[in-house]
Amino acid sequence: LVASVGLCFSAALLAHVAGFSVALGAFLAGSFVAEGGVSKQVEPLVRPLRDMFAAIFFVAVGMSIEPAAIFEYWPAVLALTAAVLVGKTLGVTTGAFLAGLGTRTSIRAGMSMGQIGEFSFIIVGLGVATGATGSFLAPVTVFVSVATALLTPFFVARSSAVANHVDRRLPHALQTYATLYGSWVESARGRGLPSTATGRIRRLARFIVLDAVLLTTILIGVSLTLESGTDSLASLLGLPPAVVQAGAVALALAALFPLLYGIVHSARSLGTAIALQAVPAAPSGRADLGAAPRRALRLSVQIGVVLIVGIPMVAVTLPILPTYGGPALLGMLLLLLGFAFWRSARDLQGHVRAGATMIVEALAVTGEHPTSSGGILAEVRQLLPGIGELTQVVLGAGEAAVGQTLAQLNLRGLTGASVVALCRGEERLVLPEGDKELQVGDILALTGSQRAIAAATALLHG
What we know:
Distance between the termini: 52 Å
Radius of gyration: 28 Å
Structural class: mainly alpha
Oligomer: single chain
């Protein structure tokens, strides 16, 4: 215990002497303990001290805030509370979905993580102490933290209803995309990346980061030195300052364009590499029926890269660059990618609808020859790459789904899996509507990730 506390205080002191936050030093001390492999032994020993210092910390924060200040700063509190709730909810939801967790889980995770933590008090305290921000930000941060913490249980309680509402309101093309995306991520993880593909993906990621850093550095440097440098260069060359400034801007744009192009091109190449891992290309000489899923996945990766790289760049350069050129450029790029993504989602919907026709015929064959069901659906998966983990479910007497419609079951909203085909005697249904009532003997074809299929199968059988 003494050694752990001594290491913490020593690292905090060194960080303070070096001009950094004492919290950073304490964090690094904890990292050293974890790296040493003794965290399980140390954690129970320091837990009482942690709780004691946490209580003292919050008492100190509370004593530094005047409750009446909320009446003075209430517009800022309301605006920042809304920004935190919306921003963190959207950010966590997007990140969770891109990780392959599905629409329902992603929305519930986003609505559960809308609050800000106590570490924000430390950051604001450092900003006030160093003069980087005004003293008004400390009470505003505390009030925002309290407001978001109080609203979190309300958001958590309604997250399932919101997820169901969003799933029902999504266009059919996006519903199909959301169902299949999890299976693509699962497929990419399950196959494992060969060494050549891993090296290529890492190399592209490094190029993107390097280009983003250089782009940000040039933007900041030009913005900070444009006026003073223009005047000095104009007097040295004997030219009008406006001409020199225009030339400097032109040179900066000429230097920025290759970097911006490099980010876009590397993001596209990265998306293609990941999409090929999830949905392999067809052998030479055969029709490539996986082009639509690969295109949708590639654009998803591109949008993810633009968000991950673009948002920090805009946040860093916004106080320095004039007007709102950075947000406008980011918004325009996302708009173009969003339009291309919508077209790819519609193509994917057509791809799935065409494949569902083949699937329903396969279901008819399995109904006549039940022992051949696994082989036929496996052949369909090979012919339609990117269609998801196709699974057949036969409804028996007394099962929970019998007598209910697909809308009442809310199968896709609760599990993430979709029914792409239904076979009932001589009746063949491609992408059945939600008002279709299920009956005994119905043969359903489900698609989605393995986890979604397992949950949907359990829900259907009850």
